[in-house]
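HUMAN: Can I see a protein plus its fold?

ASSISTANT:
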Amino acid sequence: MRIVLVGPPGAGKGTQAQYIASHLSIPKISTGDIFRANVSSGTELGRKAKAYMDRGDLVPDEITIAMVRDRLAQDDARDGFLLDGFPRNVPQAETLKKILAEWDARVDIVLELVVDEDEVVRRLSGRRTCSRCGRIWHVDFDDKQDDICDDCGGELFQRDDDREEVVRHRLEVYQEQTAPLVQFYADEGILVGIDATGPIEEVTNRALAALRPLDR
């Protein structure tokens, strides 16, 4: 089964991708993992990507797509995969469609993790990071009454990208870039929305229920 997972920051894509891929015994493939693997291995694509990353620039689509193509061509992805973080826009989705068509394959289903904007803001802006051990706590979910890490006694702080105004800006960017992508897959007839609120296990069960008709 070939799956694409989409959703806004804070929707739980990374967690759900891991659970779903494990349940289906297919590789979870994310652009972050691909970048790290290519950079650490010193591949030609990795060296090109690192040059952009070191300057703080976005890695161009052509390099990202080339890395994804190489990864999808590996043996473990031959019978299926779950893509997390790719494609991010319609041009990437069109290119992915062409790549898979070359192998007489296609994306079977696109799962969109749907979560209310205010819930995303609550999830992300409530996170606090320990300055000593790095553990992440949440002011609501962990019932934290102070700014001290219960594990090591380190001071907790809020990362800049977890501040409410930054989170809301990230959501605006997501909507600008990804709303057309969601519509693209809806037009393809393979988009399924999954309610991403509630306990992790419940969200996973909803996703697996949506996949069950295809898992034969």
Q: What stands out?
A: The radius of gyration is 19 Å. The mean pLDDT is 92. Residues 164-188 form the longest helix (25 residues).
